[in-house]
Amino acid sequence: MRGEKEQACLDLIKEALFMRNGQLSRHPFTGKTQDEISDEEFLKEEIWYVNSECSKHYFGLLEEDRKEFAFILRKAKANERKSEFPDFVFENGFIEHFQITSSKTTRKGAEHIRTTRNFDSKVELEAEQIKREWNESPSFDKIRSKQWMLDNPEHNYSFLIQSFKKNWEHHVQSLDRYSGNKEIGIFLVEYTDVALSMVENVYKDWINGMSQGDMREEEKFHSYRLSRDTRMLNYIYGYRNQIKYIAFVYCDGFEIIRLDNIPYLIKLLPWEYIVYPMMVKTVSSLYNQTVKIPSTLGNSNEELQ
Asked: Which end of the chain, N or C, is more open, meaning fewer C-beta atoms within 10 Å of its C-beta?
């Protein structure tokens, strides 16, 4: 159903901002949450309602930007016209969600999604057949098991760039046709493929075998991070007059980037990052053991699986 994945993605960020230890943040003196106060109270004492840990997710945001973004998440509502741009609206702007992939994409969609769906269907059908066979011939002397394995289809950085730009430009075209308030534009970009890693190429021109003492090591990431990709940062910077913030959600977290201030962020990235695919396998397992238990009626045994 349209709207569920968009809402789930936005809620992930909202929960990170407004919750601590699994609970909504409360004012230390009043005990109220951000849901129980007025907009004026929230803007005045926002510091008590936003998790301070979220500062690590902000890139290029000034203090007023951080307050503004938190206030937007508090007020944004799903577009009642679910088939139209954008996905969420608030008084002076919008949030539009889209997903990207690093797998090959054709007219039939992302290869990763198709392959995974086919794998899941195969496992479901075969598992049901195996369960029936095990029920018909129980085994009391060993644990039986069955495993299915799937290698990730091809993923690479080029596929990611193609998907990002294609989806970005498609939604910019929708924005151009949008007649609502565009003062603050936010693109919510979701990348959940567990497929690409990054490493800072600090030693690109290093002499092979030369020591570096206790000087800094390269930065490494298990997941692709938009905030470290100068190529893509320069690309989205070109849309700074249309989009104020990008919220980039990846499998391990999220990043909030203000497009206006990307040049300052790039100054902190003197080296490029190598983006490379991980070797990933999907494993599905089924286990069975039949146990004899005493029957409460006579001396017969019943099988429990």
From this structure: N
